[in-house]
Amino acid sequence: MGIVVQKFGGTSVANAERLMNVARIVTDKYKEGNSMVVVVSAQGDTTDDLIDKAMEINERPSKREMDMLLSTGEQISISLLAMAIDKLGFPVISLTGWQAGFLTNSAHGQARIRNVHKERIEKELDQRKIVIVAGFQGLNRYDDITTLGRGGSDTSAVALAAILRADLCQIYTDVDGVYTADPRKVPGARKLKEITFDEMLELATLGAQVLNNRSVEMAKKYNVNLEVLSSLEKKPGTVVKEVAKVEKMLVKGVAKDCNVARISVMGVPDTPGVAYKIFASLSAKNIDVDIILQSIGRENTKDISFTVNSNNKDAALEVCEVFKDTMGAMAVLCDDNVAKVSVVGAGMQSHPGVAATMFGALADSNINIRMISTSEIKISVLIDKTKADQAVRVIHDAFIH
Ligand code: ADP
Ligand code: ASP
Ligand code: MG
Question: How far lies 224's CA from each of 102, 218, 230, 382, in Å?
Fold first, then answer.
């Protein structure tokens, strides 16, 4: 008996039948005597459909109005789930993000949670109500609606689990756990019984959307008891924790990220401070840069290439064009026909064979590597987007049998 936070993603609440299924999962846990807080996402493809609707009207809509629009998806789900639970005869109340006390900063479209005022939720729990909360949304200090970025309902759930000191946070989704690669793309992918926060954070950041990376970051910080499992099949999922049982696997997973653009500034002067100028200007615009490559100087010039998230492509190009004009570079090129494929596993830096195996698998499939970056826990390569799924499969097969 304790406090349990459950989160259900879009597929899990997609229609009336699925909502009744969720209502049964929630009320079964409630019947065990637990206090239940349930976070839901928008139904099915609702968020994508809302984005399409906005694009039909304005290709560069105001971020504030986008948040106003996108937050409606989750409001539909909370009310419908409350109706489903009520139909089963249990006390229930639905709350929007702001009613549930979610306060965020003002970064519309990717807001960060500043605080959660939990009084309202606690009041409802004291009355033994099942509390349904809209994920992905909050309010900034000007009382404007914000959203937390795609996949943000995971973060809403983990934040509630942390602030309520919940005994358990269960992320229900459309696969039955965290796999060594996306099980929809890689037939041989293996389900992991356990994974560490650090490995999961890396996998999520590198594109495994089964958990949002900010949710994992927060779960690690507050040591939330986190589990990923299926809403469609009743079986054990994956536990995400500080220390996982050591499986005899160096590589824990392979992930891909197709939302990447490579920008190259060609023919910049080969003098000290040039790289500083480009990257300081990018950072001043809050643009995160990922892989960076600088060519060897020739005839007093060099080329600098880097990758950014596709969302930041236009802003990064603007910065580089200004740099080109002021610093006298030759050209700015952009390629968004690329994808980043990564292998993740703790301690791989002390195993030189990992890079060799990964590059060998790509070579055997005639896939060209455009950029490489490594850290203690991952190796990433930039390749052609059209080869991304094949690359994930061959790399996965090379490491995980
Ligand atoms: P939800 O709507 O429940 O939040 P998401 O679509 O955001 O679900 O995330 C679940 C999806 O993540 C799965 O359907 C799967 O295709 C994908 N996925 C990518 N990488 C992995 C992985 N390593 N393990 C499990 N699922 C993964
Ligand atoms: N509905 C939002 C999205 O599709 C948030 C979420 O599902 O977590 O990204
Ligand atoms: Mg998700």
Answer: 18, 8, 19, 33
Range list of β-strands (E), 231-300:
238-241, 253-269, 292-294
Residue type, 224: V
Q: Which residue blocks in 186-339 are alpha helix, DSSP H?
A: 197-205, 213-221, 274-284, 313-327
Residue nearest to atom 9 of ligand 2 (CA): 150
Q: Is the CB of 152 under 6 A from ligand 2?
A: yes
Q: For residue 357, what are the contacts with CB-CB under 8 A and spacing of at least 6? A: 398, 399
Q: Cα 100–102–108 angle (5° rounding)?
A: 135
Q: Where are the alpha helices (DSSP H) in 88-185?
A: 119-126, 153-163
User: Could you identify the atom of ligand 2 that is nearest to the CA of residue 149?
Assistant: 9
Ligand in nearest proximity to the CA of 157: 2
pLDDT in tens, 170-216: 999 999 999 999 999 999 999 999 999 999 999 999 999 999 999 99
Mode of pairing for the β-strands spanning 130-134 and 35-40: parallel
What's the DSSP call for residue 293? E
Closest ligand relative to 180 C-alpha: 1
Q: How far apart are the first and last CA of the chain?
A: 40
79 residue type, one letter:
S
Q: Is the CB of 208 under 6 A from ligand 1?
A: yes
CA of 88 relative to ligand 2 center, distance in Å: 27
Residue 249 near residue 233, CB atoms below 8 Å: no
Q: Give distance in angstroms: CA of 47 to centre of ligand 3.
A: 11
| pTM tops 0.90, yes or no | yes
CB atoms within 10 A of CB 83: 14
Ligand 1 atom closest to residue 185's alpha carbon, by position in its atom list:
16
Q: What is the pLDDT of residues 85-114, one digit of tens each?
A: 999 999 999 999 999 999 999 999 999 999
Q: Which helix (H) or strand (E) holds 372?
A: strand 371-374
